[in-house]
Amino acid sequence: MMKIKNITFNFFKRFKIFAPISLAIILAGFIVMMIIGMNVGIDFAGGATVSIDFGDYVANNQDIKDDLVNEVNAVVNAEGFEIGSIRWSGTDENIYEIGLKYTLNGKKVDSTSETAQSEFLEKIEGENDSLKDKIATAVNGYTDAFEFTADSISANIVGGETSKKLLNNAILATAIAIVIMLIYIAIRFTLSSGLAAIIALSHDVLVMIALTTIFRIQVNTTFIAAIITIVGYSINATIVIFDRIREVSKLESMKDASDWEIANKSIVDTLGRSILTTITTLAVIVVLAIVCSVLGISTMSEFALPIIFGLMAGAYSSVFLSAPMWVYLRKLGKKIKAKKKA
Predict the structure, then answer these.
(1) In terms of CB atoms within 10 Å, which of 36, 65, 132, 291 comes out highest?
(2) How far is it, in rounded angstroms, from Cα 239 to Cα 194?
(3) Which residues contact 175 (CB under 8 A, 6 or more apart)?
């Protein structure tokens, strides 16, 4: 394990500098969210996915992908549809998937109406002058190297009410998990440790959401998985520090030490582990994000980028915020006890 010695940096006294940085990021994300909202994908906003299977020709001729995308997207826009997401899928990356928002000719489609949904889908894959037919015509007009028909195109309605229920269930599950973690940490350590850990955890999730909003990363169902991943990772990193605080407070040499001295020594003792864990985890996720971006796998990129934000926020809070917060909560607890005795 990496050990860092002779550090005289006072983490506790710098808390008043570190905490406002986090608050500024969260506030900036909240302001952007209020003004222009989050970049919500069709998984939550509702819409339709159109899958276009170009077959073996595209699989063996990757250089024509951009031209095909331009041809297809031009038709989609001309027909009044709004593209919410695009990606290539399939074993040979030969299936072009377009996420269409619930809008048509600039007007929003009622996602709660089954009739409106049916009419929307009919315009995409109906028998008369549908979007599928026009895409097929455009692709055949672009190249005669392979035979392309509307049968290679499929569409289906996604998102809407189902995704909202999924989001609500995920929020409820996360809230229950946080309460259980608070109880567990309070029993294993102290109540102040539990509260400090939950505050740090909430900070990580809020910073993750704020940065995702600021950088306009699309929010789909993968974002829920990213949040749950960060919740598990962050609480583990914070518990390591509180475990060290408990050990340090039992040392004979720290018998007369103040809470902030115990906290500061605990941070220094675990700093090497925190740095190594964060760097190694970040390295893997960054490589994943780069590879997915190069290959055009947008779904994985939308998962990896929020994870990167959450990892950085978790490393920041576990080192700079959680232990100082524990000191402040201990101080507050002592004041409350003193008042009760008085």
Answers:
(1) 132
(2) 9
(3) none
CB 274 within 8 A of CB 233: no
* DSSP assignment of 24-58: HHHHHHHHHHHHT---B-HHHH-EEEEEEE-HHHH
Mean of pLDDT over the chain = 84
Structural domains of the chain in order of their starting residue, each with its CATH number: 15-40+162-341 (1.20.1640.10), 47-158 (3.30.70)
Strands 81-89 and 47-53: unpaired
Q: Does the predicted TM-score (pTM) go above 0.70?
A: yes
Q: Among positive and negative, which fits the CA dihedral 236, 241, 247, 250?
A: negative
Residue 51 pLDDT more than 80?
yes
Report helix, strand or coil for 212: helix
What gap in Å lies between CA 314 and CA 278, rounded to an integer? 9
Q: Under a CB-based contact definition with an 8 Å cutoff, are residues 203 and 310 in contact?
A: no
- DSSP state, 145? S
**What is the rounded CA–CA span in Å between residue 309 and residue 61?**
36
Using one digit for the tens of pLDDT, what is the confidence trace for 190-241? 889 999 999 999 999 999 999 999 998 888 878 888 888 888 888 888 888 9
- Can you give the pLDDT at residue 309? 94
Q: Is the pLDDT of residue 316 over 80?
A: yes
How many CB atoms within 10 Å of residue 244?
20
Q: CA 44 → CA 25, 100, 221, distances in Å?
A: 25, 12, 7
Q: What is the spatial distance between Cα 331 and Cα 261, in angstroms, rounded to a whole number?
A: 13
pLDDT at 3 over 60: no
| Tokens at 102, concatenated | 């619930």
